[in-house]
């Protein structure tokens, strides 16, 4: 048996870090088991689903390093769902209901006052054919509910029916079908809710493991019952904890919070995003994984904690910086060029090697390129004794090759001339050379400037 997993987003907006957590869990699990990963778009909601969102989702996944083995669209598989629905109807397991939302709410309140579970009472099962015909003649289109197998002989006398499974993340789990309403599988307008298409696709596509957020735990019992009603054994299930914002709010495609598109556009490295999305909320230490192979090795689905985990973008900055510090020039060359660095300049590679430990994102390097090739920035200025010292120190610039040893030789000469030491010795020179009170090691910077440019920057 080949392990087969799926990620089934609705293309109704941009996917966010929480959605990608599920995609990555599935992708990594498949890689660990030499399995297959299916990207399956739940696009049956034709009013809200858009092709551009589906295209962006695929781009987002590939940006992260997820390369689907198969891509499918549920909107192209309606015949399969119609066939399954008819089979359930023929078996008496999918029945028409005509209540309005207001009627259902009134019945729910009545059951609560009687101290009964606020579940659907299956009143529609009592309708005669004549009553159904009359309702439809008066314009009441039916929605269709799946009859849960939570009774012995009388559907109006449900009894405790525990559906159990060994969850790949949470361990032994159970759901009592008697505590649930018969789920609606088909809306009044004839469109499908996600439940039936999902089960049909999982059966026909050979999905062996369904790994998803723990907000679906209670749905699992229902879906397992539908699998069996359609003559199939359910796959294995695993439910991971959800990510929230740093303030504890839920993530939403509609709000666009922490969307993968926005994170990519902000200059974050894919592996910084992937590492934090996967390792947050687990007992595995969070660190920046160099590539998907490393993340696959670190991933342990059983290490996921049961409580929701907060995703803090500030943590992302730290991981991103770690990854950027190790990126070679040939990997970032194009991005540097796009940011404004003249990558054809013979100093470009040495510049990147020097500056990468001082930036959080690759594009940040462009802010330093003019400082090297044109003139100092204007973020810091000299005055008073520091200005006089810097001017005198430039007169101490040693002769000879401008190499990484020059900075040490220069500061030693300046120290002997001025008696200064520590920050008072080197900071005025840094500001004179770069216009900033922070930055890369000056022993690396001086060779990029050259003697003529160094002297030109005498304050």
From TrEMBL:
<dbReference type="InterPro" id="IPR004527">
    <property type="entry name" value="Glu-tRNA-ligase_bac/mito"/>
</dbReference>
<dbReference type="InterPro" id="IPR033910">
    <property type="entry name" value="GluRS_core"/>
</dbReference>
<dbReference type="InterPro" id="IPR000924">
    <property type="entry name" value="Glu/Gln-tRNA-synth"/>
</dbReference>
<dbReference type="GO" id="GO:0004818">
    <property type="term" value="F:glutamate-tRNA ligase activity"/>
</dbReference>
<feature type="domain" description="Aminoacyl-tRNA synthetase class I anticodon-binding">
    <location>
        <begin position="413"/>
        <end position="457"/>
    </location>
</feature>
<dbReference type="GO" id="GO:0005524">
    <property type="term" value="F:ATP binding"/>
</dbReference>
<dbReference type="InterPro" id="IPR049940">
    <property type="entry name" value="GluQ/Sye"/>
</dbReference>
<keyword id="KW-0436">Ligase</keyword>
<feature type="short sequence motif" description="'HIGH' region">
    <location>
        <begin position="9"/>
        <end position="19"/>
    </location>
</feature>
<keyword id="KW-0067">ATP-binding</keyword>
<dbReference type="InterPro" id="IPR008925">
    <property type="entry name" value="aa_tRNA-synth_I_cd-bd_sf"/>
</dbReference>
<dbReference type="InterPro" id="IPR045462">
    <property type="entry name" value="aa-tRNA-synth_I_cd-bd"/>
</dbReference>
<feature type="short sequence motif" description="'KMSKS' region">
    <location>
        <begin position="250"/>
        <end position="254"/>
    </location>
</feature>
<dbReference type="Pfam" id="PF00749">
    <property type="entry name" value="tRNA-synt_1c"/>
</dbReference>
<comment type="similarity">
    <text>Belongs to the class-I aminoacyl-tRNA synthetase family. Glutamate--tRNA ligase type 1 subfamily.</text>
</comment>
<feature type="domain" description="Glutamyl/glutaminyl-tRNA synthetase class Ib catalytic">
    <location>
        <begin position="3"/>
        <end position="317"/>
    </location>
</feature>
<dbReference type="Pfam" id="PF19269">
    <property type="entry name" value="Anticodon_2"/>
</dbReference>
<keyword id="KW-0648">Protein biosynthesis</keyword>
<dbReference type="GO" id="GO:0006424">
    <property type="term" value="P:glutamyl-tRNA aminoacylation"/>
</dbReference>
<comment type="function">
    <text>Catalyzes the attachment of glutamate to tRNA(Glu) in a two-step reaction: glutamate is first activated by ATP to form Glu-AMP and then transferred to the acceptor end of tRNA(Glu).</text>
</comment>
<comment type="subunit">
    <text>Monomer.</text>
</comment>
<feature type="binding site">
    <location>
        <position position="253"/>
    </location>
    <ligand>
        <name>ATP</name>
    </ligand>
</feature>
<dbReference type="GO" id="GO:0005737">
    <property type="term" value="C:cytoplasm"/>
</dbReference>
<keyword id="KW-0547">Nucleotide-binding</keyword>
<dbReference type="GO" id="GO:0008270">
    <property type="term" value="F:zinc ion binding"/>
</dbReference>
<dbReference type="GO" id="GO:0000049">
    <property type="term" value="F:tRNA binding"/>
</dbReference>
<keyword id="KW-0963">Cytoplasm</keyword>
<keyword id="KW-0030">Aminoacyl-tRNA synthetase</keyword>
<dbReference type="InterPro" id="IPR020058">
    <property type="entry name" value="Glu/Gln-tRNA-synth_Ib_cat-dom"/>
</dbReference>
<dbReference type="InterPro" id="IPR020751">
    <property type="entry name" value="aa-tRNA-synth_I_codon-bd_sub2"/>
</dbReference>
<dbReference type="InterPro" id="IPR014729">
    <property type="entry name" value="Rossmann-like_a/b/a_fold"/>
</dbReference>
<protein>
    <recommendedName>
        <fullName>Glutamate--tRNA ligase</fullName>
        <ecNumber>6.1.1.17</ecNumber>
    </recommendedName>
</protein>
<dbReference type="InterPro" id="IPR001412">
    <property type="entry name" value="aa-tRNA-synth_I_CS"/>
</dbReference>
